[in-house]
Specification:
434 Repressor (Amino-terminal Domain), 7 helices, 58% helix
């Protein structure tokens, strides 16, 4: 099974979100319009006070043509993969998800690992 070396840090996530927004010269106001949320929500996402929803992360990744791992991992934090995981483990995990969860998981995996998608 895969495990993350360090826990998720919403403040780091927010800093990366703000950085990518500014790199594209987008104001918080415009970003809020694009995501159909309030400017206050953008501020809370960027300061790590509120976690952003997966649907928004997917939209942001598509918008900026980046992988979701940009938000979750920095260069020194990588996903450790236990060599014991196999296809059967993955089938078991996916079988417990409903159709919407499976679709969302596949979208997230495609965004996180774009080089593996043909």
């Amino acid at each position: 099974m895969a495990e993350i070396e360090e826990t998720y840090d919403p403040i780091d996530f927010g800093k990366r979100l703000k950085k990518i927004r500014k790199q594209h010269n987008i104001t918080q106001e415009r970003f809020a319009e694009i995501l159909n949320v309030s400017t206050d929500s953008i501020t809370k996402y960027e300061t790590g006070k509120v976690n952003i929803g997966h649907d928004y992360i997917i939209k942001i990744c598509k918008m900026f043509n980046i992988s979701a791992d940009y938000f979750y991992f920095d260069q020194n934090k990588h996903l450790k993969v236990d060599n014991e995981i196999n296809d059967e483990d993955l089938r078991c995990i996916f079988s417990k998800l409903d159709e919407e969860e499976r679709t969302r998981a596949i979208e997230i995996l495609k965004l996180a690992f774009p080089k593996t998608v043909a």
